[in-house]
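Progress against Task 2.4 (sequence-to-structure conversion) is shown through the following example record, which the project officer requested during the mid-term review.
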Amino acid sequence: MADGWEQRKIGLEEAFFRKRDQDLLEKLKQQFESQDKIAELQAVSGITDQTLLQKLVDSGVGPGIFIALVITPLVEVAWADGQIDDRERTAVLSAAGANGVQAGSAAYQWLERLLKHRPDIAVVAAWKEYVRDLCKTLTPELRASAKREMIARSKHVAEAAGGILGFNKISTTEQAVIDELARSYDG
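Structure tokens generated for the chain above:
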């Protein structure tokens, strides 16, 4: 009987440590996956602030979501006057390329489609809702920084159209769109 008892004790001990090892291995795997996601997001975004990158990853922002966060306002500003000219198209594609969207990729093809056919209003509504939710998780400083970056990228696209005779490079319609998008960062 002692042998049976001893075997059960050993079996229990092994099961306990096997479960504990599995838990530790899972934690280690999650840590490596998080580091991989941070590295991918850093490569796509150009963000070097590790705290911000970790916060974005913890909030579920991966490279694909980041690209959508960057591209959506650019496309919306480009469509502000109801059409997109070649200079605006080039500015949007250039900004997207600077944020990791490579020619030929699925994201690039999606972007090209959005530049040919104005996106449904639901796309912008979803972007605004996502930004509002994301901003709830960010510090005021990080939220302000993200807002400034979106405004700067959007103004670059708006200025690409050139304005009237080189004056007023950003139309009132484009500025209204930029202002509306910027309010999404305020809460």
